[in-house]
Amino acid sequence: MPGLIGAVFVMTYVGMALGRLPRLRIDRAGIALIAAVVLIAGGGVPVEQVGGMLDAPTLLLLFGLMVLSAQFAAAGFYDGCAAALARAEVSPFRLLLMISLVAGGLSAVLANDVIAFAMTPVLCQGLIRRGLDPRPFLIALAAATNAGSAATAIGNPQNIYIAQSGRLDFVEFFLICGPPAIVALFAVPLFVHWIWRAQYVLDIRPPGVPANSDDTPLARDRRQFRKAVFATIVLVALFATPLPREASALAIAALLMASRKIASRDLIAGVDCNLLVLFAGLFIVTGAFAGTPIATELFRDLVESGYLPERLSILGPLSLLMSNTIGNVPAVVLLLQVWASPPSGVLYALALLSTLAGNFLLVGSLANLIVVERAASVGVKLGFIEHAKVGVPMTLATMALAMIWLWAIGSVAL
Q: pTM of this prediction?
């Protein structure tokens, strides 16, 4: 069945690059799921082997973190946080800085995609009420969620998978990836302000947004908010212990579901099933491909030619290219399925660079696409070129600084 597996593999990653199937409303998750079904139904992957292809620890850890984030959402924290930022009576540059630090800080501990999803509509509406163009602030929001999430092993889906695959230490991950991620976080408002400094005022108010002020409190249910904060502190503490991270996250998720006020179905509804399906489908497709003679020969040729991405001069451009074509999550899944045992230094570098590379173009990360889609739901259109004017120079600068840092500390060779 190598022919079937190879054809499905190629079509899957073409679909990852396009982001959809022509004339059909099927996104990346749907493409990955259909590809997995074709392989199973066509005999390319025996049913009894499917379970072994799925990286259960990664999927369980993602699920647990999503439940924790859903607790914050249920407490009204994300809506209140976005509303408070939009109401802040500060200059546009200081507002950009505040949005970057808040969104980036939250993304380092909670899933960045959830931050982007929850904060975008409320932030848009609040800024429009003030007569400000939401677009530069949305670019800052998306870029900050990416930059902040690069700092930790739980900041985004690809970091979670990389850390789980390499059993990377939680604290060491932050010590290596944290400093350049923090620098990138402060670079976000600088680059956005540089490009948009003369265009902050909104010319035309989109329809459907009332002119009255929004008095949404920071957290509507303070008790549930305190519960979420306590759960987060306990979870981070558990990550510093030998206890498996997925077990820690599931334990916290189970405790949060045992609530007298918030129904468990509401917390489960906050889980991004689309992302879990994307991961599961890609695990099956890439796992099947990794076991074919084609993949073995390709990997051997890369090693013999010196193009294995274990040096920054190859890993940096490769991360930038793959993240902005097939996406950083599919790129990481593909690379780690084919490359069985990369050095830990390369894994740290892959997590950092693939995440920062997501700011290059709108298609570079799921967080970017989420911001665009959520903004469109309230009448704000953020275009490809508008984002690229900021994203391209910002990403090149922050990735260059990150590569210098990784080389200077001896994590990866040039």
A: 0.83
Structure tokens at 238: 């558990």
Range 288-324 burial, b when 16+ CB lie within 10 A, else e: bbbbbeebeeeeeeeeeeeebbbbbeebbebbbebbb
Chain-centre distance for alpha carbon 4: 31
Q: Does the CA dihedral 98-100-103-108 come out positive or negative?
A: negative
Residue 266 is which amino acid? D
Position 391, amino acid: G
CB 15 within 8 A of CB 31: yes
Give 343-379 pLDDT, tens digit per residue.
899 999 999 999 999 999 887 888 888 888 888 888 8
- Please say whether the dihedral angle defined by the alpha carbons of residues 127, 129, 130 and 135, taken in this order, is positive or negative: positive
Which sign does the torsion angle of CA 282, 288, 291, 297 carry?
Answer: negative
Residue 144's pLDDT band, with cuts at 50, 70 and 90, is very high
**CB 331 within 8 Å of CB 354:** yes
Distance CA 130, CA 152 (A): 34
* pLDDT tens sequence across 165-197: 888 998 999 999 999 999 999 999 999 999 988
Report the C-alpha gap between 414 and 406 in whole angstroms: 9
In tens, the pLDDT along 249-265 reads 999 999 999 888 888 88
Q: Which residue ranges make up each domain of the chain?
A: 55-276+310-408
What is the rounded CA–CA span in Å between residue 359 and residue 150? 12
Q: What are phi and psi of 132, to 5 degrees?
A: -100, 145
Contact 369, 362 (CB under 8 A): yes
Q: What's 205's DSSP letter? A: P
